[in-house]
C-alpha cells in the first residue's frame, strides 16, 4: 500500500454531504460523456452502502493531483473543469465521518488521516492506494458508508438528468425545459446553479458566456441572474417551437393582472414569441386599451374564431409594421379593421322598414337641411344603414359618411332628432366643402353652418316673441285655448324643452 498525501486538513465547512455526492456524480457523468459508455449507476447495497459507478476508463492515482483537466477544458459539454471537485468531496466526506472507498482496475483506494511526510506535527488526509482487487473491473466505483437516502436524493436533484424536467426545445445556446414544479431551475451543462421563482421555464445553458464562466465558483451554486440572463434570452430568441411560443404568448395575458413571468418582461422575447404565434394564424394581438375602445371588433374577431392575445403597448409598438417568421403581416387591430373594410358592405334600411319613431325623425331630413339652405346639389340621396365603417384613425364605427354622392347615416342616430341633426349637418358640411375631417376647409364650412342655424334660431325666437306680444283677439283660437290651459308640472322638463326647441326651429310640419 502506498499513501498519497492529499494535503487537506479541514476545508469547505459550509458543504453538506449532498454537495460532496454531487461532485462524485458530476465526475461520473463527465466520464460517461467523454467515453461514450453506458449510463452511470447509483445504487444501495445490502450493507446500506451507496455505490456510484461509471463505466469509463477507471481512476488512477494521478487523479488525486489538483489541476485543471485539459481534456475537460476542451470539451464544451462537460460539467466539471476545475480539477478540484474530487478533493473537495473527499475532504467533506472526511469531515462528516462518511467512510469512502474507491475501486478501479488500476487500484483500490481508502482514506485516513496521518502525519504529513517529514512533518510529524501536521496531520492531513491521505489516499491509501492498494493494488486492484479486480484488475478486470470496468470503470470507477465510489462506495460511501454513512450517508443517507436524503443526501443521495438531494444530490441527484441537482442534475438535469434526474430532475424529471421535460426538454421542450434545444437551441445552439441551450435547452428550454418544462419545469417540474413551481420553481424554475437554471442548469449549466446539466448541473443546477440557480433557482428562479418567477420564470416560466427552466433552462439548461450549454454555450457559456464570459460572464457565466467568471461567475461559476468551485461550489457552482448561487450564480446570480446577471451572469446568465443574456444567455437565457438568447435561448428564447433562438427558439422556434410552437409549444414554447404558445406558452410565452399565453403568459402575455397575465400582463393586465400583474402576474407576468419575468421572461415576458423582456420586450424582444415577447416580440419574438408573438411572431412565431402569428405564423400559426387565427390570432389577433390587442392592447388592453384597444379591447376597451373597440368592443365590437373584438366581438367580431372572437366570433370568427380568432384567439385574442393581450399584449403591452411596448410590444405593440415593436410589432407594428413587422412580419412573422413566414412573411405574414402581424395581425393587430389595424390590419383586422382593414381586412374587414375590404369586404365591408352597408346594410341599408329602406324608410318604410324603419319603426314609427325612427321614420318621424328621418322625415325631418328636408327641414333640417333647409336650416342651412337645403341639401347641396351634389347630394343624390340620404340613406340609413345598420352598419358603418370605422372612422378614420379610430376603431369605433362612424355615425355618418359622405361618399361623394350620398350621405349615409347609422341607424342608431335616429334615436333622437338631436343626434340625427348633428350627424346630418356634419356630413352636409363635408359635401359642401369637399374636405375631410380635421382640415381647415371643413372647419370653416362647419363654422358657417353653425352661424346659419344660429341665425335661423334667432329669427324664429324673434317671431315667437312678436306673436306673444299681439293682443289676445289677434291670436288664433288654438293659442287662446292654450293660454287658458293650466300648465302641468313636468317630471322631466329637458325632453319637453328640446322638443319645443326643435318644433320652433323646424316649424309646424303641417304648414
Automatic annotation (TrEMBL):
Classification via Pfam families: MPN635_N
Domain MPN635 N-terminal as annotated: residue spans: 150-242
Presence of the UniProt keyword Acetylation in the record: no
Gene Ontology MF: a single term: ATP binding
Low complexity bias: start-end ranges: 480-491
Superkingdom to which the source organism belongs: Bacteria
Keywords: ATP-binding, Nucleotide-binding
Renumbered residue ranges of the record's region Disordered: 466-498
Gene3D superfamilies for this protein: Histidine kinase-like ATPase, C-terminal domain
Record flagged with keyword Ribosomal protein: no
InterPro entries: HATPase_C_sf, MPN635_N
The protein, known as: ATP-binding protein
Organism: Acidithiobacillus ferrooxidans
